[in-house]
Amino acid sequence: MKIKATAFLSIGLFMIALVSFAFNAGAANQPEAVNSVVDTKLTTAEMSGTYEFGKPHTTIGFRVMHFGLTEVPGSFRDYTGTINYDAADLAKSSVQFTAKIASIDTGIAARDTHLKSADFFDAEKFPELSFKSTKIEKKGNGIIATGDFTIKGVTKQISLPFQITGVVKDGQGGILMGASAQTVINRQDYGVSWNKTLDNGTLVLDNNVKVDLQIEAAKQQPKTETVK
Predict the structure, then answer these.
(1) Residue 9: which pLDDT band, with cuts at 50, 70 and 90?
(2) Backbone angles phi, psi at 158, to 5 degrees
(3) Is residue 24 predicted with pLDDT exceeding 70?
């Protein structure tokens, strides 16, 4: 059971990376960074604003090699993400993300329970992982989001590249942005270190975790105050 749980402890790390990616996606929504799916009728003012991650069409996923044989997938189901996007000045954009460790889902209930225990992420003591950007910048044809990522009480600065998959109107008056990102992180950097080594030297659980983020965020409408 512990061996199986091991594969999922990577999930946490994986989610870490995906947190950063999410923010990146928000900042990336600059007209120049958007690919062919962008709605050219959208103005800079229309594209700018606050976007929130939409759970129905967003996946915060990860994969980690188990026994050196197969990559085991997982994801976080309970998360929130906000992108403050300035289409006129990308540097003024920002993103923040939080995921609940208790929402780890690998498809095996017993394994998920073990991953939430003190052996791995210790969800009771460290209920969330988070990312908060400190800088958003354009690099060549891409965008890099740099910020503070925290998991199990350990905070490290990371920089993540991402691609904007589009900015469109949803047919109901709303505006959506999409982004995708893939990267690899080392779970040992965040104290998610449980592991064992087979007789042939192979790790039961690889230290490298592949992160795959598919983000769809919806622009929020300004709140109007009710005059009494």
Answers:
(1) very low
(2) -130, 155
(3) no
Mean pLDDT of 73-82: 91
**At a CB cut-off of 8 Å and minimum separation 6, what does 165 contact?**
35, 37, 178, 179, 180
**Residue 137 contacts residue 90 (beta carbons within 8 Å):** yes
Gap between the Cα atoms of 39 and 222, Å rounded: 21
pTM beyond 0.85: the answer is no
Stretch 103-122: mean pLDDT, rounded? 89
pLDDT at 17: 38
Instruction: Give the separation between CA 147 and CA 132, rounded to whole angstroms.
Output: 5
Q: What angle do CA 181, 96, 155 make, to 5 degrees?
A: 90
For residues 26 and 177, the answer to whether their CB atoms sit within 8 Å is yes
Is residue 30 predicted with pLDDT exceeding 70? no
**CA–CA separation, 20 and 166 (whole Å):** 19
- Amino acid letter, residue 112: D
Please name the amino acid found at residue 44.
Answer: T
- The tokens describing 158, both together, are 């990371």
Q: Which helix (H) or strand (E) holds 188?
A: none
Tokens 């005059």, residue? Answer: 227
* Cβ(213)–Cβ(165) below 8 Å: no
- 38 phi, psi to nearest 5 deg: -65, 145
Q: Which residues contact 173 (CB under 8 A, 6 or more apart)?
A: none
